[in-house]
Structure formats: structure tokens, C-alpha cells
Design a protein that fits this description.
Blueprint: H1 3-18, H2 24-35, E1 43-47, H3 53-62, E2 67-72, E3 84-88, E4 104-109, H4 119-140, E5 141-152, H5 157-167, E6 168-174, E7 185-193
Parallel strand pairs: 1-2, 1-4, 2-3, 4-5
Antiparallel strand pairs: 5-7, 6-7
């Protein structure tokens, strides 16, 4: 058995043992341990939150005086966490009015496209979701707030990172140990939302037929 398979099985077993809904919990845990994204009392928005493992991690990290809202097209049931609320909704429908004009300290996005097996198509789908998360953050994230989002590596990653760098004080890629080595999955970790992060996306989307 390969060392990577052993590592994958380790995180799977740990998730089961500790009551997490998936091993993705350890991805956010490592990101937060390294980059200090979540703080006590934070108000957190989790995009693409099903099945709920990131909500479980965030719930512990922000503490009882923090609050997390998870949004997904799928229903997230039976979490039973006092500081977590879930909404079954398309994230593109979210607005300040959805949250009674209250802005967030942190936006998390574990959103991923329905995969096709074609790495180019899947990559561009994931980049589009990241730009959606950035657009949401421009409206809903407080100045100096933090953003973490999943992306599949590929040709459009450089432009995505460049956009992040214009919107945040620091924006860097990070691959947690809980991500499989053979996977193109990684995370863009952005800290310190800039005051002027309100301009529309200035990276032109691919034309039809280019992978979206």
C-alpha cells in the first residue's frame, strides 16, 4: 500500500473516530493551524458546506460566542451545533439582506464543480466557483476579513491568484496533508480583505467551449 493511501486512510479513520462528517475537517484544521484564519467570536460564512465537516471545525474554533452560517444546495441535517445555522440555497442568491445587513469576519468555500473526469473542464469549473466566492466576499466580508477557498490547479490558477492579491493583503496557495497527493485540489488562503474590494471581476471568463 502506498504511503499516500496510508495517509488517506489515516485521516478517514480519524474523522470517523472524532465524529467528523468527512476527512475534509482536517484540511480546514491544518489551514487554520498554519494561517490563523478563525478566531474566537468570529461570524463565519461557509459556502458549499455539505456534509458539514467544516462547520464542525469552525464551530469549535470560534467558540460559543461565535456564529457560523453554512449554505449549500443540499440539505445539511442533524448537526446539532448551537452556534451553527444552515441554509439550503444557491450561493449566488445571497446578499446583505439575507443576513440582515450583518457582514462576516471569515468566508470559507469548499465548493467544487460536478466533476467530469476531464481535468481542464473540472479546473475551469472550480476557478469559476472561486470567482463567485470572491464576488460574494466583496459584498459580505468585512474589511480585514479572511477568505479560504478550494480550487483545482490548472492554467487559470495564476489569474485567480492575481485577482486575490489585488483584493487581500496576503493571498497564497496551500495544500494540506489531508488532500491526496495525486489530486489537483489545493486551497487559496487570503487574509486581510482590502477596503476597495468592490470592483467587479477583471479576469475575463473563458469563452464557451473552453471548459466551462
Amino acid at each position: 500500500m502506498s504511503s499516500q493511501r496510508v495517509l488517506h486512510d489515516h485521516f478517514f479513520r480519524e474523522a470517523k473516530r472524532n465524529g467528523y462528517r468527512s476527512r475534509a475537517a482536517y484540511k480546514l484544521t491544518e489551514i487554520d493551524d498554519k494561517r490563523s484564519i478563525l478566531r474566537k467570536k468570529d461570524f463565519v460564512l461557509d459556502l458549499g458546506a455539505a456534509p458539514g465537516s467544516w462547520l464542525q471545525v469552525a464551530s469549535k474554533r470560534v467558540g460559543p460566542r461565535g456564529k457560523i452560517i453554512g449554505v449549500d444546495l443540499k440539505e445539511i441535517d442533524n448537526l446539532q451545533l448551537d452556534n451553527v445555522t444552515t441554509i439550503q440555497e444557491d450561493v449566488t442568491e445571497l446578499s446583505l439582506e439575507t443576513f440582515e445587513n450583518e457582514m462576516f469576519d471569515v468566508v470559507l468555500s469548499d465548493m467544487a464543480p460536478s466533476t467530469t473526469g476531464n481535468r481542464t473542464i473540472d479546473h475551469h469549473g472550480s476557478v469559476r466557483l472561486c470567482h463567485t466566492a470572491l464576488d460574494i466576499a466583496a459584498t459580505l466580508l468585512k474589511p480585514k476579513g479572511n477568505l479560504v477557498m478550494k480550487v483545482l490547479e490548472g492554467g487559470a490558477y495564476k489569474e485567480l491568484l492575481e485577482r486575490c492579491e489585488t483584493c487581500f493583503s496576503v493571498a497564497k496557495g496551500f495544500k494540506p496533508k489531508a488532500s491526496r497527493a495525486i489530486s489537483t485540489e489545493m486551497f487559496v488562503v487570503c487574509t486581510g480583505r482590502k477596503e476597495d474590494m468592490t470592483k467587479p471581476m477583471d479576469i475575463a471568463p473563458p469563452r464557451p467551449g473552453s471548459g466551462w
